[in-house]
Amino acid sequence: MAAIQDQVVVVTGASSGLGRALALELAGRGARLVLAARRLDELEATARRCRAQGADALVVQTDVRREADVQKLAEAAMEQWGQIDVWINNAGVTLFALLEQDTFEAHQRVIETNLFGSMHGARAVVPIFRRQHHGVLINVGSVLSEVGQAFVPSYVISKFGVRGLSETLRVELADEPDIHVCTVMPYAIDTPHFEVAPNSTGRTPFAMPPVQEPEAVARVIADLVEKPRRTRRIPRFVGAGLVAHALFPRLVEHVLLDALRRWHLAPELPERTSGRAGEGPRERAHIHGERRPRLGTPRLIAWALVRVARIEAGNLWRHVRGRTRQLPTASAAVST
Description:
The protein is α/β, with parallel strands linked by helices. The protein contains 11 helices and 9 strands. The strands form 2 sheets. It has a 7-stranded parallel β-sheet with strand order 3-2-1-4-5-6-8, sandwiched between helices. It has a two-stranded antiparallel sheet with strand order 7-9. The mean pLDDT is 90.
């Protein structure tokens, strides 16, 4: 792919968080932007900041859960510029709740936004890419596209689905060498979603270290526009954690659950404990959030190593005790 300069780039979820950071990064590189989100006022605020950098920015109010909205988004881009070079499926929401908590509809709204929204985007832009014989589709997944996590089940399910969407499209487009499908899988990002997401856990969620700045993730995604890759984990070292999970799944899952209970969810009640995932009037339209990690990365690593040692010691003790119980007693041995 050529440089981003003058390419037409569609970004969904551009009103806050990573989407706003991404729009500003692309604006700085000279892209012609089509910005989509539900909140028109905050979308316009993003567009103003992009235009201040000299970029063209078209605003299209869009609810990605509605396929008709997403089709209109693609049509607006084509009417404005006659082409779409890049489409970034970024819109996403979270619900903090165990799978059995909250209503099923609350979980469903997360799936509809994160997964169905990405499917709607692909259905709208892939036919355009086919006619052009070029284009880059970037699906924003998560490290949770590859490993499970407690307290956000619908988010995890949706992000696994986003990765599946990318894998499917790569096969469908295998005979189109200039159409690229990229999956971005970032670790925790410092955005407002920790404080604005609906929450039924009764506890306050905080980011887990090492939390990333949205601007850093936006730079990596923008780099993919210029040099597409099938998969990009951000940061790269999260791959080591995935290897550890593949080798020692039960142990890693046990430590992860303990870490989430202790460091991800604070015992105090959040300010807002209910709401509708995907309904954004109360959301803070900022790039950064306010719930930074409660501990640093070195302390988390040290804690995890100690926890691993204790879990393994407990497993060894249970094994030895179980073997001891199976040994025959002295009297039983004599009687035989």
